[in-house]
Amino acid sequence: MISSMQTSRWNAILVPVLAVILGLLVGAVLMLLMGYDPIAGYSSVFQGIFGNSYFIGETLRAVTPLIFAGLAVAFAFRTGLFNIGVEGQFIVGQLAAAWVGASWDLPPGLHAAVAVLVAMVAAGVYAGIAGWLKARLGVHEVITTIMLNYVALFGSNYVIRTMLKGATERSKDILPSASLQSEWLTNLFEGARINWGLLLALIFVLISYWLLMKTTTGYELRAVGFNPHASEYAGMNVPKNIFLAMLVSGMFAGIGGATDVLGVNGNMAISAGFTGIGFDGIAVALIGNNNPFGVIFGALLFGGLSFGADNMQRVEGIPTESIQIVISMVIYFVAASSLIKWLLGKFRRRQGV
Amino acid sequence: MNFTDMLTIIINGTIIFSTPLILAALGGVVNERAGIVNIGLEGLMIIGAFAAAVVAIWTGETLGMPGWLAPWLGILAAMLAGMLFSLPHAVASIDLKADQVVSGVALNIFAGGVALFVVKKLFEGAGQTTTVQNVFHKVNIPFLNDIPIIGPGFLQIYPTSYLAFLLVGIAYWVMYKTPFGLRLRAVGEHPRAADTVGVNVRKMRYMAVIISGGLAGLGGGTLSIAMSQSFQHSTVSGHGFMALAAMIFGKWHPVGAMGAALFFGLATALAASGQVLGLTQYVPSEFLNALPYLLTILALAGVVGRAQAPAASGKPYEKGSR
């Protein structure tokens, strides 16, 4: 007889794994219906992720910003806030890092650290606007963060065009002293743009976990998210905690933006549209059940499948969108986990355990 | 350019740009008043835009149906596709007691994936449909159109805009003047009380989600066959989220949501015609583009204030639970 505690532990791992399997199955059926070979399709995705060390390195490069975006969304979710503005905060982080990286003059290493720090603070403050509006005036954070995304997009384009413009439609390149690129890692992965950002991402997963689960502040943040009225009754400062939660959430997004500029491109493009990374962060957080460690799993799955999908389209001619559909089904099955738990329960009863 | 011309351009642009938002925000209102959160409006608009473009091309150009009929069939398909694609969200939120935000996010990704997958399949790998030949044209009403400002500003709009305003009226009437509407709102405010007096919570919520899907699909359809005249990955780009914002801005009320959508439309019209109106001489275009969003934040912070969602919004209803 398995105790209910153990069952729920098992379910926490089994549900996402089964959701992935079911998602892949739905994707396979869809490919069959559309006249493609799902086995060839999935093996080309697999090849596109693990096929050679360059692909592995590039997959990890794609996963890095997703970890940050996922952390940002998950942190806000755990504190009862829906931060759709990670996209905009990511952009603010990119801009701040590009600005510090290109126009300040500091010793190597320190320069990169300062650029990351400035990006972190800038994006945190930017997200803090939405937090402050929610805390003081009760303005719904979903609207303000959506609006702030657009303001960040157009605002950063303006700053690049008028103050930071390089030779092309991009910002000036950052100085080598601010770079997060790693020759060692790039050589190890045969030229892939994997960089120190990945290490930073893993460190911030730990920080996020520690902050949420091991500190009084984290406890208060979660309490306010869980039940603001009870928290207020218990003497917690609800508005302060709402503001703080958005601030920290934005900080994660900002560092993600910084690693993208300092570690991968070395500059920031004037862009007509969003990067999409902030929105993908929502999916990553949800697959990871809003747990900082779960976010790593979510980012690996999301980033890996999306990156591998390019290879599938190249080799097998199957549209990358089929993988997008697989990802959506995984999220759907995670949402509808009661269905999976019910199936598991049935299975267990039949096994008599 | 004189003042009358400028005013005409701005008024006309406001109505045209706000139409898809009005329809989708209306969908959001119906949904959330019944207690179901729908982040999936974006996805439903994508699938609507896709269905409208593909069906208008297929009926008008492949089957050779009359040019006036094809866009109407397209818009009908958009509505039906929106209803169909809202079903998984309904099942997840109502029967599987899923987290409605998560399910809505899944719907957004799913709809975008399906639409582009099929487009690539139908149009030999291209990421967009061909240009729709039979589209809606702005309505010309004899005599009335000659009235300055009112004619070319207010009346010379796409038939879909007239449809949108009509649907706002219908939605208001149904939601506030009929027993059905009362039940719908009761289910979103206090499902247990509604259940006690014999309202079928499950059925009402299913209907709300499906109606909402139809409206959001319509909104998406107007984007592809009245405005951009094709479907590609960027046709909808964020309109669903703007509609969501309009719904909250309009305090979950059909007329309020329309007002908020018109406000976004106005700001978008100002940005879009900045060049024509000569505004870009004085203000950088990026500022004009950011204006709708900045104005919204200011309006929410200063004027509108605290928004109160329907009490049971986002909460699955379990019969017999306390």
TrEMBL record, chain A:
Pfam families found in the cross-reference section: BPD_transp_2
Cellular localisation: Cell membrane
Record's bilayer topology term: Multi-pass membrane protein
Keyword flag Oxidoreductase: no
TM spans (from-to): 12-34, 54-77, 84-104, 110-130, 142-160, 194-212, 242-262, 268-286, 293-310, 322-344
Keywords in alphabetical order: Cell membrane, Membrane, Transmembrane, Transmembrane helix
Major subcellular site: membrane
GO CC list: plasma membrane
PANTHER family: ABC TRANSPORTER, PERMEASE PROTEIN (PTHR47089), GUANOSINE ABC TRANSPORTER PERMEASE PROTEIN NUPP (PTHR47089:SF1)
The name this protein goes by in its record: Nucleoside ABC transporter membrane protein
Automatic annotation (TrEMBL), chain B:
A Pfam family recorded for this sequence: BPD_transp_2
The keyword Hydrolase is assigned to this record: no
Keyword Lyase set for record: no
Superkingdom to which the source organism belongs: Bacteria
Regions that span the bilayer: 6-27, 39-60, 72-94, 101-119, 157-175, 206-225, 257-278, 290-309
PANTHER family documented for this protein: GUANOSINE ABC TRANSPORTER PERMEASE PROTEIN NUPQ, SUGAR ABC TRANSPORTER INTEGRAL MEMBRANE PROTEIN-RELATED
Annotated protein name in UniProt: Nucleoside ABC transporter membrane protein
Lineage: Bacteria, Bacillati, Bacillota, Bacilli, Bacillales
